[in-house]
Amino acid sequence: MSSMIRLPRADGSSDEYKLHEPGAFSLASAAPRSRVAYAAAHVVCDPLTTTSHEAFATLDWEATLAYRRHLWSCGLGVAEAMDTAQRGMGLGWSIASKLIRRSLDEARAIPGALISCGAGTDHLIFDQSTTIDDVIGAYEEQCAFIEEHSGQIILMASRALAACAHTPDDYIRVYTRILSQVKQPVILHWLGDMFDPALYGYWGSDNVDAAMQTCLEIISSNTQKVDGIKISLLERESEYTMRRLLPEGVRMYTGDDFHYPEMLQGDEQGYSHALLGIFDAIAPAAAAALHALDAGDLERYTAIFAPTIPLSRHIFQTPTVYYKAGVVFMAYLNGHQAHFRLVGGLENGRSLLHFVELFRLADQAGLLRDPELAIARMRQFLALGGYA
Any idea which architecture 30-317 has in CATH? Predict the structure, then answer.
């Protein structure tokens, strides 16, 4: 089969595009030694029953769990039921709790499999009458469920808390209460409003430095209960600053899908670990790069990661909330799922030309593992989109 495909351009023209050879990513199923690395995993919806974002999500459970096995086979950890899994954008707690339980069961069957699970307040129906105590109760319920099933908690940012908190002290009260109760250290999650506009002003301030001080106060007062913090602000200076200020023993997990190679490599003042949505899409490359870092081979580390940056920046371009569509499209092109639909029809948040450019960038990063399959699926996608 030819490795050529005709692709449309924004000016209405088209060109013949020749695919490259897939990247030679030699994988070790063992986890990287020098960094803790999680991929925030997406979910595969059931295409026969998926409707709008207002309906309950229905999942293809086998394909969803198989993708987690794929991530573990690369030596990456799974960050379960996070925003990449469309938490708050079609995936409610009723399904997320089942996903967490089933993924934890899968992980127990795989020696060394790393998994942590998102606990939030998204089952709480909040309005003007919602109180801080309501938020605490919602967090307690989800945290208790995860710990009941022997999972580590990722304490997700709460839309309800952002809506009803009036001062930084409200955040301190909520997080101090939850951290006092958890059985093992948790990973905190600071998700920026570019990912979720409802989280604007989190930690009680729209000033990043002031918000950071509140977050650091919470961490410093509860160091025995905090494994680390993931920040997703897409702004490297904030991560550098906060990383330097973290108490000893508390990890920084980069959530910066624009600058992850330099964050993970680090400098004389330290380095970050990884909890990244883009690692779902580039798992083989990410694993190979981190093993190169383990070996001190910075030339190979850079060579692997460098071409993934344009791809990641494209997937996470504004409006950033739709990045999940790019992550799922990568899984579709690589044969990990049989269709390209998302929970709630979220694929409609990106244009056909967006996916065409994603295809080119994924190929240039060596991330299309079977070029013939990728071409066949891209042609099918283009035809369905009206470009034959």
Answer: Alpha-Beta Barrel (3.20)
